Amino acid sequence: MASVFIPALMRKLTGGRDRVTATGRTVGQIIDNLESQFPGIRAQLIDGGDLKASLAVSINGEMATGGLLEPVDETSDIYLVPALSGGL
């Protein structure tokens, strides 16, 4: 199973867990599996059939550019990264 690292602002959806496991061969399938485990999490990650613009995904230390179709290995480390905004 892939390890999915949950950002602090979304941990209320996972019962406070910062890391969970999920199955799937793409980012989209991983999110679908997360939704089956933690109802409501999909709405925080998906907008209009694609990843929310305010979210980036890193797989094994590399930023994913394939959106929901990005391939995932069974042993991948997946980080859900909220986009940073603001500044001086």
Features:
single chain, Ubiquitin-like (UB roll), 28% strand, globular
Within CATH, the superfamily carries the name: Beta-grasp domain
- Report the top-level CATH class: Alpha Beta
Strand content: 25-35%
Q: N- to C-terminal separation? A: 41 Å
CATH architecture: Roll
Helical segment tally? Answer: 2
Number of structural domains: 1
Largest sheet: 5 strands, mixed
Describe the structure.
With 88 residues, the chain is α+β, with helices and mostly antiparallel strands. It has a single domain (2-82), classed as Ubiquitin-like (UB roll) (Roll), CATH 3.10.20. The chain is built from 2 helices and 7 strands; from the N terminus they run ββααβββββ. The strands form 2 sheets. A 5-stranded mixed sheet has the order 2-1-7-5-6, with helices on one face. A two-stranded antiparallel sheet has the order 3-4. The chain is globular, with a radius of gyration of 12 Å.
Chart the SSEs and their pairings.
Layout: E1 2-5, E2 19-22, H1 27-37, H2 41-45, E3 46-47, E4 50-51, E5 55-59, E6 62-63, E7 77-82
Parallel strand pairs: 1-7
Antiparallel strand pairs: 1-2, 3-4, 5-6, 5-7
Give a nutshell description of this structure:
This protein has one domain: Ubiquitin-like (UB roll).
